[in-house]
Amino acid sequence: MYNKMANTEERLQQLKAFDESKAGVKGLVDDGITKVPSIFMYKPEDPSAEDIPSFGNPTSQHQFGIPVVDLGDVLAGRPTKVIQDIRRAAESVGFFHVVNHGIPKRLLEEMLEATRGFHELPREVKAEYYTRDPMKKVKYFSSYNLYQSRFATWRDSMFCDMAPEPLDPQELPLVCRDITMEYSEQVQKLGVTLFELLSQALGLKPDHLFGLDCEKEHLIISHYYPPCPEPELTIGTAKHKDGTFITLLLQDHIGGLQVLHENQWIDVLPVPGALIVNFGTLMQIISNDKFASINHRVVAKKEGPRVSVGCFFQPAPSDNPSRLYEPIKELTSKENPPIYRTITTKEYFTELYKNSINEVPVLKALKL
Question: What whole-number distance in Å separates Cα of residue 21 and Cα of residue 130?
Answer without folding.
Answer: 10
